[in-house]
Design goal:
With 248 residues, the protein is an alpha+beta fold. Among the domains are: 2-37 and 200-247, no CATH class; 54-108, MutS, DNA mismatch repair protein, domain I (3-Layer(aba) Sandwich). 57% of the residues lie in helices and 11% in strands. Strands 5-6-1-7 form a 4-stranded antiparallel sheet. A 3-stranded mixed sheet has the order 3-2-4.
Length: 248
């Protein structure tokens, strides 16, 4: 990564003023194209259940609470609770590696019948707010809540908090994330999984800027956009996030 960064700086240093102006125009044109295609007219709620499999297992067996636990076995684990994550244990990690990181780690076998049951309970809550919600997996869904906000004259963060409360009361599980499209809603929930608010504005801007930069860098000669392009992407990201806050 350091070598790649040094190469980019070296190439950037060779750009003439004319080159910089040219690539600045490319960046500005791309931003204009993105502005024309994005739709901020909806309010999306991204629901991501918190360490879902591990949380369900803890509900079934309260003695697991407070212990380092992973769902899976020595060959592979599906997820881990936060006590295990403190040791570096992560989902999709071979169990024997996880055990080396955390010798006290407890393995619980996967039980999809149990997870499906709890997933069904959460979906019944989601249907009250969006009959056509998009299910991404057993523990993840996208809800378009704009009609609920309009009909009840409430803010999106109030709806998010209400859904969180209903899910917790009916399942004992926690979830959240709000945004004007599915991408931003997901980034919000990733940045603040256990919060119904939008979280820190600068963190959101930084997260979205990283997404934009990654997209640009994947393009042919993307590195030539350089620092000026990065500044433009930052300003574009700020514009999106502040519009998101105004709509919420």
């Amino acid at each position: 990564m350091r070598q790649r960064t040094d190469n980019m700086r070296e190439r950037l240093g060779k750009l003439s003023i004319t080159d910089i102006a040219h690539y600045q125009k490319i960046a500005e044109r791309r931003i204009t194209e993105l502005e024309a295609t994005r739709d901020l007219s909806r309010i999306w709620l991204h629901v991501d259940m918190d360490a879902f499999y591990a949380a369900v297992e803890t509900l079934s067996n309260p003695s697991l609470k407070g212990t380092a636990m992973a769902v899976g076995g020595m060959s592979m684990i599906s997820t881990a609770n936060y006590e295990a994550r403190r040791y570096g244990v992560r989902a999709a990690m071979p169990g024997f590696i996880a055990r080396k990181l955390c010798p006290e780690l407890i393995f619980v076998p996967v039980d999809f019948e149990k997870y499906t049951y709890y997933s069904t309970l959460t979906r019944k809550v989601f249907q009250r707010y969006d009959l056509n919600f998009i299910s991404a997996s057993l523990d993840e869904a996208y809800l378009d809540i704009i009609e609920v906000c309009r009909e009840r004259d409430v803010r999106s963060d109030e709806v998010a908090e209400e859904i969180r409360r209903c899910v917790f009361e009916e399942t004992g599980l926690t979830c959240a994330g709000v945004g004007p499209n599915r991408l931003l809603a997901k980034r919000t929930s990733v940045k603040s999984l256990n919060s119904s608010s939008l979280g820190d504005v600068e963190d959101l801007i930084h997260s979205f800027m990283i997404i934009m930069l990654e997209h640009v860098m994947r393009q042919k000669d993307g590195w030539k956009v350089g620092l000026l392009g990065a500044v433009l992407i930052y300003l574009y990201s700020r514009n999106i996030i502040y519009k998101l806050l105004q709509m919420s």
